[in-house]
Write a structure and sequence with these properties.
The chain has 150 residues and is α+β, with helices and mostly antiparallel strands. It has helices at 15-18, 66-70, 74-77, 82-86, 97-104; strands at residues 3-5, 12-14, 36-38, 49-53, 59-62, 108-115, 124-132, 140-146. The structure holds zinc ion. Zinc ion (ZN) binds next to loops.
Length: 150
């Protein structure tokens, strides 16, 4: 069953719950304007930053944990190309997993990556889970989870 996740608060709702009430597309917990459909359930941990992009990779929402994890306030990220905005790199990846998710419409999970938090001059290790959107807008949801070295 499809699951819908709120990019703002990471609340998950099953597809059946989504059609109840009068806010079928918004988040039933925080009231945010839209949720992202996932083909399989996904749990975003407290330290997982959720970022939504459009099909041109421009940030639409820097949501759940995005500011605490990246240091960037949401207004500084919106409209920016996501990899550039987050200092995101996928060393060793055979291709750009964000492009793969967008072009093939497939989710790309557990991609090792680095990102550069705001105000830092060193990169942090993380893993990225990338989910294509299934609506007509054709964007994606990026879930970025830092990993501790050592
Ligand atoms: Zn929400």
């Amino acid at each position: 069953m499809a699951v819908f996740i709120c990019p703002r608060c990471a609340h998950r709702a099953a597809g059946a719950e989504r059609t109840e009430g009068h806010q079928p597309r918004g988040c039933p917990r925080c009231g945010f304007g839209f949720t992202v459909e996932l083909m399989d359930d996904y749990y975003a941990g407290p330290l997982t930053a959720l970022v939504c992009c459009d099909r041109d990779r421009r940030v639409l929402v820097a949501g759940h944990a995005a500011t605490p994890i990246t240091g960037w306030p949401e207004h500084a990220l919106i409209g920016c190309e996501v990899s550039a905005a987050l200092g995101l790199a996928f060393p060793g990846a055979p291709d750009d997993p964000i492009a793969r998710a967008l072009e093939w419409g497939v989710r790309v999970l557990r991609q090792p990556c680095t990102f550069r938090p705001c105000g830092r001059d060193d990169d942090r290790d993380a893993v990225a889970d990338i989910f294509p959107a299934y609506d007509d807008d054709g964007g994606l949801l990026l879930a970025l989870t830092p990993v501790t070295k050592g």
